[in-house]
């Protein structure tokens, strides 16, 4: 039996790992990468922990990457010479006290990565896999993705590093300038379509039916394999202890599946003896998973996603729905939503604690606060919130928040600049007025 293969999540049909395929030929189900765990069980859990801990202190190629430090669990048959890495992974896990009134909250800062989002974790594996396919004679001419911003940045950067052309499909006028700049800078073919993300996704699926253009969205199982290392890394950073909850923003839903797969692999190989609960956090304006959750997932609901500050998860028909539902059921997961007002103010509160939260992270933090208030998450629970992108990608929305110009948002933590004449008396008067007020603000 091969060490890894592609397997349909519906009917279980198997395909070779080096076949360019995204859906099952029998039932149209999505595919996952599956691993033969028997060779991996030849190492004990203590040995795996020691190996991974040792690699985390190395600068040796390719273990300077948090993904490739787990190569045996991710892509054991990939030639090291085909690895395309930009130093992804090993992002900080920050303890933030009394966030949402909880004393034991950590923020997994996935935005402190090469292109500023967790998408780097999956893209290093996918582009490395494509590079290997090309080296084996595949006639792949380019890689392509639909994106709301972060996926396009990651694909463009890793494709550029590999010397492979990239084609990016973006919803015209619906991503931030910072996100648009990244794929342009990396030399990708950037196509702005007059539609939303779901429309871009339909087009890229049609275009990549030609196997010479390789699909790089998270419906591709190779992306999930890299992204699954975030769960492994969280537990490793907690001293191999499992948190009670992990809260993660949810858009196209590949991240939910990936998080679950990494944690389940740790459990199956004996590195952990219990599983955390997973919370999928959605923006109220783009909440198909939340609405499906209300039916206990008996009905798959899609929506026309409305404009949300959390533009990276402004998706109404998530491709990885089935994968996400499977993971949520396995992890006793729940789904909650946040309004524009809630997510914007949650991000601003986090910024006051020294973070610089993207709107998607604001969704997760708002959901955390809701669940804490409700008592679902207890005071003594250990909670990790996954921050998916760097706040610098969303500078315009932050400026608008503090200017008080965001629709549907009452900016409770607004801090606009104060403009004064260049006069010492006026400046001192302002300082003496402002400092006492600031000292009374909650910390």
Task: Explain what the structure shows.
The chain is of the alpha/beta class and 443 residues long. It has a domain at 93-115 and 224-403: Rossmann fold (3-Layer(aba) Sandwich), CATH 3.40.50.1100. 38% of the residues lie in helices and 14% in strands. It is built from 16 helices and 13 strands. It has helices at 37-40, 45-55, 71-74, 119-135, 150-162, 177-185, 197-207, 221-227, 229-237, 254-268, 288-293, 321-330, 340-352, 359-374, 395-403, 424-439; strands at 4-8, 14-16, 31-35, 93-95, 105-109, 142-146, 166-171, 189-193, 213-215, 245-249, 277-283, 334-338, 383-387. It has a six-stranded mixed beta sheet with strand order 4-5-13-10-11-12, with helices on both faces. Strands 8-7-6-9 form a four-stranded parallel beta sheet, sandwiched between helices. Strands 2-1-3 form a three-stranded antiparallel beta sheet. Strand 6 (142-146), helix 5 (150-162) and strand 7 (166-171) form a beta-alpha-beta unit. The longest helix is centred in the first third of the chain and has 17 residues, at 119-135. It is globular, with a radius of gyration of 22 Å. The chain starts with a strand and ends with a helix.
Estimate the strand proportion. Answer: 5-15%
As a percent range, the share of helical residues equals 25-40%
Strand order of the largest sheet: 4-5-13-10-11-12
Structural class: alpha/beta
Shape: globular
Mean pLDDT over all positions: 94
């Amino acid at each position: 039996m091969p060490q890894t293969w592609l397997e349909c999540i519906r009917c279980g049909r198997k395909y070779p790992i080096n076949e360019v395929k995204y859906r099952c030929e029998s039932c149209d189900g999505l595919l996952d990468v599956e691993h033969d765990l028997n060779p991996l069980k030849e190492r004990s859990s203590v040995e795996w922990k020691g190996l991974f801990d040792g690699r985390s202190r190395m600068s040796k190629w390719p273990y300077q990457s948090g993904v490739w430090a787990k190569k045996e669990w991710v892509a054991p048959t990939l030639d090291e010479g085909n690895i395309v890495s930009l130093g992804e992974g090993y992002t900080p896990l920050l303890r933030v006290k009394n966030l949402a009134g909880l004393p034991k909250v950590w923020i997994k800062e996935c935005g402190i990565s090469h292109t500023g989002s967790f998408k780097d974790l999956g893209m290093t594996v996918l582009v490395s896999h494509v590079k290997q396919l090309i080296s084996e004679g595949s006639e792949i001419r380019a890689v392509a993705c639909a994106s709301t911003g972060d996926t396009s940045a990651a694909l463009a950067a890793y494709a550029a590093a590999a010397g492979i052309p990239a084609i990016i499909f973006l919803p015209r006028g619906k991503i931030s300038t910072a996100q648009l700049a990244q794929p342009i800078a990396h030399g990708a073919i950037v196509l702005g379509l007059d539609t939303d993300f779901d429309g871009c996704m339909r087009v890229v699926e049609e275009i990549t039916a030609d196997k010479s253009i390789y699909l790089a969205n998270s419906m591709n199982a190779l992306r999930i394999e890299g992204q699954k290392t975030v769960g492994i890394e969280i537990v490793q950073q907690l001293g191999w202890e499992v948190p009670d909850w992990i809260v993660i923003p949810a858009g196209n839903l590949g991240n939910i599946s990936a998080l679950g797969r990494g944690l389940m692999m740790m459990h199956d190989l004996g590195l952990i003896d219990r599983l955390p609960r997973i919370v999928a956090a959605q923006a109220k304006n783009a909440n198909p998973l939340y609405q499906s959750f209300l039916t206990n997932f008996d009905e798959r609901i899609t929506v026309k996603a409305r404009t949300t500050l959390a533009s990276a998860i402004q998706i109404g028909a998530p491709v990885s729905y089935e994968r996400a539902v499977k993971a949520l059921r396995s992890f006793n997961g729940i789904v909650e939503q946040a309004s524009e007002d809630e997510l914007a103010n949650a991000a601003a509160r986090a910024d006051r604690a020294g973070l610089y939260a993207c709107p998607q992270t604001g969704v997760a933090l708002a959901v955390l606060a809701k669940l804490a208030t409700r008592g679902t998450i207890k005071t003594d629970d250990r909670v990790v919130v996954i921050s998916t992108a760097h706040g610098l990608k969303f500078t315009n929305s932050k400026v608008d928040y503090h200017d008080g110009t965001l629709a549907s948002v009452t900016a409770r933590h607004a801090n606009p600049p104060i403009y004064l004449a260049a006069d010492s008396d006026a400046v001192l008067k302002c300082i003496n007025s402002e400092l006492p007020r600031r000292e009374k603000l909650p910390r």
